[in-house]
Amino acid sequence: MAQTTELVKVVVVGGSFAGIATIQTLLSSIKSGHKNIQIILIEKRDARHHPIGSFRALVDAEFAKRVWVPYTNLFPKDSQHKIIQDTVTQVHHDHVVLASGQIVAFNYLALCTGSDNPAPAKFTVDSSKESMAITSKAREDLQKSKSVVVVGGGACGVELAGEIKNAFPDKKVTLIHSSQTLVDYPGYSSVLKAGALTHLRDLGVDVVLGFRAQIEGLDFQNSIQVASRTIVTPDGKTIESDIQFLSVGIRVNTSYISTLKPANNPSFDSSTLTHADSHQIKVQKTLQVIGFDNIFAAGDCADYSKVPTAAASGSIAPTIANNIIALEVAKSKRKGKPAKLSNPGWMPSVMLLATGPETGVTAMPLIGTKFSNSISKALKSKDLMIGMTNSSMNWK
C-alpha cells in the first residue's frame, strides 16, 4: 500500500466477536506497514460483554465479575484509532449517523452489530453495571427457588439448564422444547443432538420435547420470571415451577440500513438489502454488502453463516479486514486491475456446549462428533473462553 498522509478511515460498528476480530486483523496489517489506516469503533455499550459466560455468571457470582471486559486497552496508547460509545441509527454510502446526531465519515464500513437474545444470555440495556445487576437479581431469585423451568432447547437453553442443575443439584430443573430434537440446527450431527439430550438427562434435567410451552408473563422482554406457574403437557404431565427462563429466539436489528443507497441511485429500494424474515444483511462471499464494494457485514447481523455462533463470527470476520487491505493495495497500484478478494471458505459445524465447569458436549466434524466431559472441559467448559476474549481486548 502506498504510504500517504491521507487517512483511510475504517468504521467498525459493534465491538463483540466479529467486530473485534476485524479490528485485530486490521491492527496486524497496520503493524506490517499499512500505517495510514484509522480504525473507529462505534459501540453502544460501555464494556464488551462475553455472552459465552452468561449462564456461568448466573450461577457463579465470582465468575460474573469476569464477563464484562473494558475497551480501555483495545488500541495502542496514543494511536490514531478511537472508540465512540453511541448507536448507529443510519447508514449511508460514505457515512453513518449516530443517535447523538454525530456524523462519522468512512472509506470502509464493517457492520458487526450482532443479535439480541433473551436475558440472561444478552441484555437490552447498554450499561454493564445495569446488566450485572440483572444477573445478580436473577441469581438471588434462583437461589431461593425450588423448581426451575427453561423454555427452549437450542444451544442457549441446553447450557442454561445444565449450568443451573450443576450449580444447584437439589433443584428440580425442567427444560421444555417445542421440537423433538435438541440443538436442532441445520448441518449439525444427529449424534450431537442425541448426545445433548442424553447428557442433560444424565445431569438430572427433566427434558420435555415436542411441546410449545406458553407461560403467562414470560416473553422476550420479561425472560426471567419469578412466579408460581403450573404447566400441563398434552399427555397430561404437570410441571410446576417458581422461576422460569425463556431461552427462545434470536433477534437481529438492522433497521439502520434502511437509509443505505448507492451515491448515484436515490430511488434504490433499501429493503432489498436484508431478508424480510430474519432481518439479516445480504452479503456476497467476500462479506461485502450486495451492491456496495466498501461496506461489509459479518456475524449474526449478516446472512453468511447458517447458524450464528461466536466461533463462526470470530473466524469469518478477519476476511473483512483482509479484503479492505486488498482493495487499498489495488488502488495504490493504479493499474486498473481488480482487487484479489478472498472469502472465509467452508466453516465446519463446530458446537461446544458447556453445561458446567466440568461437563459438556462437543462436536467437531473434522475430528469426531461427540466427546466426553473431559474434552468439553478442556476446550470450553472450564473458563468458557474468557481468556480468549481478554487476549483479543489486550486485557489481563
From TrEMBL:
A molecular function (GO) term: electron-transferring-flavoprotein dehydrogenase activity
Keyword annotations: FAD, Flavoprotein, Oxidoreductase
Residue span, FAD/NAD(P)-binding domain: 9-314
Keyword Ribonucleoprotein in annotation: no
InterPro entries for this protein: FAD/NAD-bd_sf, FAD/NAD-binding_dom
One Gene Ontology CC term in the entry: cytoplasm
Keyword Oxidoreductase on entry: yes
Family stated for the protein in its record: Belongs to the FAD-dependent oxidoreductase family.
Protein's recorded name: Apoptosis-inducing factor 2
Organism: Linnemannia gamsii
Protein encoded by which gene: AIFM2_2
